[in-house]
Structures are given as structure tokens and as C-alpha cells.
Design goal:
- The protein is an all-beta fold.
- It has 1 helix and 13 strands, in the order E-E-E-E-E-E-H-E-E-E-E-E-E-E.
- The chain has one helix at residues 89-92; strands at residues 5-13, 16-23, 43-44, 55-62, 66-71, 82-88, 94-100, 104-109, 121-128, 131-136, 144-149, 158-163, 169-175.
- The strands form 2 sheets. The protein has a 7-stranded antiparallel beta sheet with strand order 1-2-13-4-9-10-11, with no helix packed on it. A 6-stranded antiparallel beta sheet has the order 3-12-5-6-7-8.
- Strand 7 and strand 8 form a beta hairpin.
- The longest helix has 4 residues, at 89-92.
- The termini are far apart.
- The model is unreliable at 1-15 and 177-193 (pLDDT under 50).
């Protein structure tokens, strides 16, 4: 299995814990070109104690092509159904939701700059009763930009993150578990609004 992270930093931030994950450029790899093992290139959030409920909120700093996988299997197996959300695909113009093993796709053409090379952009993803929604900001269920309903949905048991196609990424994943972690090994200023 390929691991593409370099450090794990948890910071106390406004009553939430934050997990910092850095992802390397995995090259021109995607689920179409590597259908049998693409999730091997994702960094699993469960590795850091992230508890799966029905949403994830994060900030990402990457130039383009940042991917979040919502997986049916706890082991993040590419052989089972999973959703891939691509932020900044097609030269940083698109936000996509794809379901793999049934090749279903929904996308929204956004203005240039879905992601930013130098600043964190905040997003949330929720999945409830077969509906996957994506929004901007850290307030779940506000500022929705894309929603898609899967009539044959499945339970999400693991989440992974990855960057590719020339882009590296820094992910700040917010945890709402109620646990407070305070391990500051690097000064990071995070603005949540």
C-alpha cells in the first residue's frame, strides 16, 4: 500500500480538533486509469482516529485535483463501491461526484479557482439517505454548491484523501467528536468563518 502523508498534526481550534494531513502528488492516477488499486494512494482518515458519522468538514490548500473518497469498506478497497469527490478537476474548474463500479457521475462547472495553491479553501461533504451534498465553508449544510442523489446508496465506512495531476495538498480535517486534542508541533493560523 502506498502512503502519501508526511506528518500528522492535531490542533485545538475553536472547540474542534483539526487533523493536518499533507498529501504528495500521486501523478496522473485516477480511478479510471487505476480502477483496481486507486484507493491505495489515498490517506485514510481513520488512521488518525477520525470517526465516521454523516459528514466531513475540511480546509484544503492545493492548486487543483484534490480527491476525497467515501468508501463502502473499512479497508478502503477499490474493489467495492465508493464515491470520489474531485475538487478542482479539469484545470481547477470543476467539482465532481463520481460513483465507482457503476460509473455514475455528476459535476458542476465552477468559476476558475475551485482550489488555491496558497490559501486554504473550506468545504464540507455530507451523505444522508443516499444524498451526497457538497458546500463551501465550515458550517455544514450551508452554502451548498452540488448535490446528487444515489438511488442505490450504501453506508460510508471509511474516508480517504489524495492529490494528484501535479498537485500536492495540505488538508485540515475538522473533527466533531467532542474530543479535544492539543498537540501543536508547528504554528498554523487557521481562520474559520
Amino acid at each position: 500500500m502506498h502512503q502519501n502523508l508526511s506528518e500528522n498534526i492535531l490542533i485545538f481550534c475553536l472547540g474542534k480538533s483539526v487533523i493536518l494531513i499533507q498529501t504528495n502528488n500521486t501523478g496522473n492516477k485516477d480511478a479510471y486509469k487505476y480502477p483496481d488499486n486507486i484507493l491505495d494512494y489515498h490517506t485514510s482518515l481513520s488512521r488518525y482516529g477520525f470517526k465516521i458519522d454523516n459528514s466531513v468538514t475540511f480546509l484544503i490548500k492545493a492548486c487543483n485535483n484534490a480527491f476525497v473518497s467515501l468508501c463502502r469498506s473499512k479497508q478502503m478497497s477499490s474493489k467495492e463501491n465508493y464515491y470520489e469527490i474531485a475538487f478542482g478537476s479539469d484545470h481547477n474548474f470543476k467539482l465532481r461526484i463520481r460513483r465507482f463500479h457503476q460509473q455514475v457521475e455528476s459535476y458542476k462547472l465552477m468559476h476558475a479557482g475551485v482550489l488555491d495553491c496558497y490559501e486554504y479553501k473550506a468545504f464540507w461533504i455530507s451523505w444522508i439517505n443516499g444524498s451526497i451534498s457538497i458546500g463551501k465553508g465550515v458550517d455544514r449544510c450551508q452554502n451548498e454548491v452540488l448535490s446528487w442523489h444515489d438511488p442505490n446508496s450504501f453506508s460510508i465506512k471509511s474516508i480517504g484523501v489524495m492529490t494528484g495531476y501535479g498537485s500536492t495538498g495540505e488538508w485540515l480535517v475538522l473533527s466533531y467528536t467532542g474530543k479535544i486534542y492539543l498537540f501543536i508541533t508547528q504554528l498554523i493560523t487557521v481562520y474559520l468563518y
